Every structure is written in structure tokens, then in C-alpha cells.
Amino acid sequence: MSPARPKIDFVRLPEIPLETILAHMSDPRVSVHLPLGTGRWTLESCAAFVAAKEACWVRDGLGHWAILCDGGYAGWGGFQKEGDEWDFGLVLTAGAFGLGARITRQALGIARVDPRIPFVTFLLPPSRKHLGGLDRLGATPLGAVDYAGERFLKFRLDTA
Questions:
Q1: 70: part of which helix (H) or strand (E)?
Q2: Is residue 29 part of a domain?
Q3: Distance CA 145, CA 148 (A)
Q4: Assigned domain for 22 exists
């Protein structure tokens, strides 16, 4: 008998203790894939991060969630409006790295029923070498782009 699939839930980031987010973002297995995450994380920078992500919800009516796996914190991710595009980002804890495709599909289900989101973009750092999941989703590579002074690989996925 195969083990039961873990239950994935999306909740708002303020529901997660700042200490939990601090431990996540300070993990070198995670930070190696975060070129914009320069500097040392503190409780104050985590509070500012959560406030910035909540401001997206106020401004755009959508944003990033904390992701729970069987009730435990597995990371954060969601949609952020970048100009006229909705970008999807996902930053998982090291223990949840294998859940990325499943979480992404669940989040894309939300995007597909939102008339504001005809497509989503993905920006991945060049350190990410395993991109087959985006191909299986049907995402189209758009090439390398500069974002905030860092190089990213950009992909687009139509949600219609």
C-alpha cells in the first residue's frame, strides 16, 4: 500500500511564526537559490517580508501564501503582480523540495479560475538545473531576463 498523499493548504503568511520563516530563509540549502535574498535574515527582516507580501494582497487582491503540508509549514509561494504580468514564485523548505510540482499545480488551479490571470510567468535563478517540471506543465521558455540586477530564466504558462 502506498503512503497517503500529504494534505496541502494555503494560509496567509502572518499565521506563521516569524521564527519559523527565519529558520526557513536562513537555511543555506534554500538561500543558494535566492539571488535576491542577499544579507542575513533577522526577525525584523522577516516581519518586513511578511508585511510586503501582505501589501500585495491589499493592492492586488492576491499574493503569496504560507504553504502547509499536513498542517506543518512547508514554505511560501503564490502570485505577485509584476507590471501587467502575474509571476508565480515558490520557496519551499528543504524538507518539502519534492512537493514543488504538486503545490504549483494546486496554485495554478486557483489562477485558472481567476479572470485577471490569462497567464503566469515564472522567474527561476540559473542555479535551478531541473526544469522538466515546467516543461511538463506546458510552460514556454522566454529566455534570460534581468530582474533587480540579477539574471533569471523566464517562463510563461497560459492559464486559459
A1: none
A2: yes
A3: 10
A4: yes
Q: Is residue 42 assigned to a domain?
A: yes
Backbone angles phi, psi at 121, to 5 degrees: -115, 160
Domain count, the chain: 1
Cα angle vertex 37, ends 12, 20, to 5°? 40
Strand partners, 79: 88
Host domain of residue 102: 8-117
Residue type, 41: W
Asked if residue 128 is part of any domain, the answer here is no
Q: How many CA atoms lie within 13 A of 130 on its CB side?
A: 6
Q: Is 82:121 a contact under the CB 8 Å cutoff?
A: yes
Cα gap 41→47, rounded to integer Å: 10
The contacts of residue 80 (CB under 8 Å, 6+ apart) are 56, 60, 63, 64, 86, 87, 89
- The amino acid that residue 65 corresponds to is W
Query: What's the pLDDT at 3?
Result: 59
- 106: domain CATH number is 3.40.630.30
- The predicted model scores a pTM of 0.89
Q: Looking at 6-138, list the stretches that DSSP marks H as alpha helix, in order from N- to C-terminal side.
A: 18-26, 28-31, 43-60, 100-112, 132-137
What digits encode the pLDDT tens for the residues 31-84?
A: 766 666 667 889 999 999 999 999 999 999 999 999 999 999 999 999 999 899
